[in-house]
Specification:
- The chain contains eight helices and ten strands.
- It has about 260 residues and is α/β, with parallel strands linked by helices.
- Strand 9, helix 7 (about 205-210) and strand 10 (about 230-235) form a beta-alpha-beta unit.
- Fructose -6-phosphate binds next to helix 2.
């Protein structure tokens, strides 16, 4: 994994947005895999700015979101549909028919629905660039600890840790989702390129386990060690527990020298 170290969270989001923008300019009909969550908010804000001020064009871009809560309507303020509209889609010129987000209102035949989401990704030609956050328990998408590395889009029970992390976003008396539809680890490993973003001290254990720990289903982000083109962009706090930071800095320097196109 290429590890890109940035001093601040702001620089992580700027670097991520620059990489995405560059990929969109190179391939205007790019298939982007998208994540929600607090880490991505500033990335989408920067992409919206690039659209507004530097004519970054999303008209041909096709997007697939990683996940959505089960049992939540798209209009619900905590749905990932709502998040994407609020933070990204309503600020850029994306064609609504090019947006794909798992449907959290499915009530029957979940397997068939999940297979159809996976088939839709295949029909589009696969995901070129996948954006990921990482949970404090090391999850990517909603692939909670113990998720199979062979998993594809499916229904997933959320761990207690994830449900508790989400509690603050739901009002008193509101039901907090216990399940989600999520792309699987196999679906993520099949994407052509991955950018995993992490900021803040709360992520430092998960980040160290994912990048320098053993490859294990107990930390599903560690599966990214098997991806041929995965980059982790981290701020200082999230990188705090990495043991090989000096080496990653050397690699960044050499990458800039030898493959300058690789970093944004
Ligand atoms: C969201 C998702 C999750 C988040 C992760 C980090 O679509 O797939 O894996 O990326 O939980 O969330 P934040 O950024 O809120 O800490």
């Amino acid at each position: 994994m290429l590890v890109v170290l940035k001093p601040t969270a702001e620089e992580v989001s700027r670097e991520a947005a620059r990489s995405i923008a560059k990929a969109v300019r190179l391939n205007p009909a790019i298939k982007l895999g998208l994540a929600t969550g607090s880490t991505t908010v500033a990335v989408y804000r920067e992409l919206a700015r690039l659209h507004r001020e530097e004519s970054l064009d999303f008209s041909q871009v096709i997007t697939f979101n990683l996940d959505e809560y089960l049992g939540i309507a798209p209009e619900h303020s905590q749905s990932f549909h709502h998040f994407m509209l609020e933070h990204f889609f309503s600020h850029v010129n994306i064609d609504p028919s090019n947006i794909h987000i798992p449907d959290g209102t499915v009530t029957t035949d979940y397997e068939k629905y999940c297979a159809s989401y996976e088939a839709e990704i295949q029909r589009a030609g696969g995901i070129d660039l996948q954006i990921l956050g990482i949970g404090r328990n090391g999850h990517i998408g909603f692939n909670e600890p113990s998720s199979s590395f062979a998993s594809k889009t499916r229904l997933k029970v959320l761990s207690k840790a994830t449900v508790n992390d989400n509690r603050k976003f739901f009002g008193p008396g509101e039901t907090i989702p216990r399940l989600a539809i999520t792309m699987g680890i196999c679906s993520i490993l099949a994407t052509r390129r991955v950018l995993m973003l992490a900021t803040g001290a709360a992520k430092s254990t998960a980040v160290a386990n994912a990048i320098e720990g053993p490859i294990t289903a107990s930390v599903t982000a560690s599966a990214l060690q098997l991806h041929p083109d995965a980059t982790a962009i981290l701020d200082e706090a999230a990188a705090a527990q990495l043991k090989q930071k000096d080496y990653y800095r050397d690699v960044m320097e050499m990458t800039e020298l030898f493959t300058p196109g690789k970093l944004s």
